Amino acid sequence: MPNHFPKKSFVSVTEATKKMEHYCAYQERCHQEVVEKLKGMNMIPEAIDKIIGHLIQENYLNEERFAKSYARGKFNIKKWGRNRIVRELQLRQISTFNIKSALKEINDGDYLDTLEELAQKRLDQIRETNIQKRKKKLADYLLYRGWESHLVFEKVNELI
Question: Where in the numbering of this chain does the RecX third three-helical domain appear (predicted)?
């Protein structure tokens, strides 16, 4: 009778460490991502702790560097506001200290310019004629992207 269960492959701590070094060197990672990846490789908690310790010691893994890189990338590429960036970093269990440090990567002038650009671009796409509905659509869009409510309502009232 054939065995229908997939064979579990066992990875040594040394192999797993090498894989994680490559994983972290390719792109900034947070601790949570690395732990999940190691759990997926069926590593035991002691091995996970040992590998994480090695990655931190060898500077492959650095939460502050990850948080800064993440904040810059999401702001510059996806045009996310501070609230969304904070929420996403919290989901990745990044410390408050590192989140505050990451937000300093965003220049206030660039932040307001980006909000202006994003709001104007979205407003040009809204085909609604009712002024209240136009305002709501624009505000909802900006709030969803994580822009602070006081900035959003100020911008909406300025543009419409």
Answer: 110-154
Same domain, 98 and 113: no
pTM: 0.87
Those residues with Cβ within 8 angstroms of residue 157's Cβ, 6 or more apart along the chain or in another chain: 135
With respect to residue 92, please indicate whether it lies within any of the assigned structural domains.
yes
C-beta atoms surrounding 91 within 10 Å: 10
Tell me what the mean pLDDT of segment 19-35 comes to.
96
Q: Three-state secondary structure along the chain?
A: CCCCCCCCCCCCHHHHHHHHHHHHHHCCCCHHHHHHHHHHCCCCHHHHHHHHHHHHHCCCCCHHHHHHHHHHHHHHCCCCCHHHHHHHHHHCCCCHHHHHHHHCCCCHHHHHHHHHHHHHHHHHHCCCCCHHHHHHHHHHHHHHCCCCHHHHHHHHHHHC
How do residues 124-134 score in pLDDT, each as one tens digit?
999 989 999 99
